[in-house]
Amino acid sequence: MLRVVRATGALLLLFLLAGCVERRLWVRTDPPGARVRINGDEVGRAPLSWRFDHYGTVLVEAELAGHRPAQQAFELRTPWYQKPVADFFADVLWPGKIKDDHELALRLEPERPLTPAEIEAGIREVAAGAAKLRAEAEKE
């Protein structure tokens, strides 16, 4: 009977001390301080770390006043120890914590005022579109 209690206690202790996998995406922006959204949810200001549970592609967006927004689809690739069968050992039996860190750096370009030539080109483009719509409307 004492053997059973000891064996049960040892198994319980093994499961209590068993490790897990800590998954994080670290996001940095240049310049720092940009608001960051992942899959549409605001997660904070860069630099930051974001915990995730599932691998796959995430859409990371960053915005900062005076800069053009940046976005990137980022692939959170599954490491070998998180593939079926091996993941049981990494998540349940491994005696410690495994860190699975992914890093993404986004550069936000400063906004610049439009040049007179760009403004004129935009006006011509809008005028051409309006003329085309007018011509189509007259046909009807």
Q: Label the CATH architecture of the largest domain.
A: Sandwich
Sheet having the most strands: 4 strands, antiparallel
CATH topology of the largest domain, anyone? Immunoglobulin-like
Could you say which structural class the secondary elements and strand pairing correspond to?
Answer: alpha+beta
Class of the largest domain, according to the CATH hierarchy?
Answer: Mainly Beta
- Unreliable sequence segments: none
Order of SSEs, N→C? HEEEEEEHEH
DSSP, total strands: 7
Kindly report how far apart the N and C termini lie.
94 Å
Helix content: 25-40%
Helix count?
Answer: 3
The radius of gyration computed from the alpha-carbon positions, rounded to a whole number of angstroms, is 27 Å
Strand content: 35-45%
User: Overall 3D geometry?
Assistant: elongated
- Average pLDDT, all residues: 83
Spell out the key features of this protein.
140 residues; 2 domains; 34% helix; 3 helices; Immunoglobulin-like
What do you see in this structure?
Helix content is 34%, strand content 36%. The chain has two domains: 19-109, Sandwich (Immunoglobulin-like); 114-140. The radius of gyration is 27 Å and the shape is elongated. The chain is of the alpha+beta class. The model has no long low-confidence stretch (mean pLDDT 83).
